[in-house]
Amino acid sequence: MRRIWILIALVCFMFAGARVSLGINPEVQREYQKQSETKLKDFQQKLDELKNKASGLKGNAKTEFDKQTREFDRTFHGANQKLKQLESESSKTASKTWDKLKADMDTAMNELDKLYDKMKSHFETK
Length: 126
What we know:
Elements lengths: L1 H20 L4 H28 L5 H31 L5 H31 L1
Helix pairs in contact: 2-3, 2-4, 3-4
C-alpha cells in the first residue's frame, strides 16, 4: 500500500514538473488574458468615441469611415474569438500551443491598433 502512495506522489510530481518545464505558468496566462480583455474594451470605447465624432460626416468621408469601421469590427470580433480560445485552452494546452495562441492574439491586437490609428487619422484629416 505504501508503494502505491509513493508511486502516486511520484506521478503527481512528474506532471507538476512537466508543466513547469514546458513553461506553462497559469498566473502569467491569466494576467495576459486580463490585459488582452482590457485592451479590447479600450478599443471598443475608442471606436464608440470615433463613431460619435463621425456622425456628422457626409459623402465620401462617411463611406470611407463606414468601410474602415466594418474592417475594424471584423478584426475586433476575430480578436475577441482568440481571447475566448485562449481562456478555454489555457489550462489544457502545452507551451507551444499557448505560445501560438498568444502570438495570434498579439497579431490581432497590433492589427486593431493600426486600424484604429488609420481610422483616427483619416477622420481627423477630413
